[in-house]
Write a structure and sequence with these properties.
Layout lengths: L1 H10 L1 H71 L3 H8 L5 H46 L11 H8 L3 H4 L1 H18 L7 E3 H17 L30 H17 L2 H23 L6 H7 L9 E3 H9 L2 H4 L6 H7 L2 H14 L8
Antiparallel strand pairs: 1-2
Helix pairs in contact: 2-4, 3-4, 4-7, 4-9, 4-10, 4-12, 4-15, 5-9, 7-8, 8-10, 10-14
Amino acid sequence: MLMSTWNFLKRHKRKFIFAGVFAGGVYLLGKYAQKKIREIQEREAAEYIAQARRQFHFESNQRTCNMTVLSMLPTLREAIIHQLNSESLTTLLRSKPANKLEIWEDLKIISFTRSIVAVYSSCMLVVLLRVQLNIIGGYLYLDNSVNKNGTTPQAPPDVQQQYLSSIQHLLGDGLNELMTVVKQAVQNVLGGISLKQSLSLHDLEDHLHQIRARVEEGYEGWSQRPLCWYMMPDEETTLAAQACGLTEKDVSTIKLLNETRDVLESPDFKTVLDTCLSRGFSRFLDNLAEFFRPHQLDSMHAGTPNSLSHIQLPLAKIIPIVNGQIHSICSEIPSHFVQDLLMVDQLKEFSANVYEAFSHPQELQK
């Protein structure tokens, strides 16, 4: 019996060896597959946790952006009112001066100028802070989540402070230049319109379109600047202009400023800013439209359709309405104007893209 079994094994030795090798290979392959599956699952879990952490940090950063915008609007409003002081003109008018018509003409230009500047600068403030705080937010995420091995942080507090202080250009030189350009455009478009002339809401919209074209596209040889210039100075006027004595903090700040400038000069940024400006001027016109609505009793007796397109107001009556719009546009209390800007879908998507670009380790290798 044993001999026959032995002979059987000898005759089929190769088959048994092959079967054993095959079974062992299957076992080892199974173990390897289990290990790889476990590694993939662990990697996917780690990536999910990292993405969830990044998303939470991003959303928190957007809330910070919104709060920062609201906190800076009063400063912007006061800067505009200080340079374009229409209140002094209205005070003069109450004293019934001999040059009353001349003062009214000045009030016309200043009232439209400061409200239009308020729309431009508020939109610029919103998009610029979104860019700056999302660049900083992306680097802070890296500093807190990736750079645990003693490497130099990308955005230490002193660099953040120096970098974010560049917003003062928009509130200073940039704003002053913007006022000059807008005032020229307003004078060119509205200067020849009589105070007694009646205008409809459609007329105002057409005049605003002409003013915007002169500001954004230039007109008859005007030295038109790209809108991003009002938000950030040219490179030669930044810290980079210093020939020597730059500290490590200065170098880090210059890097952030250059990265920000690259974003501001991108086609995507221009699209987002244009969208915000369109939304802002649309809301501005909506605010004015409230004063063009007829009283219900008047519309019953008029016998004409209760449509804003049929209503006109003398320019002298429109001026005070326009003049007061800055308090609604640059309001620290969330108004329809500011909420409209903060809710622009393109701005949200652009903010996410900026944060995503600067919250990945690949940026550190550039």
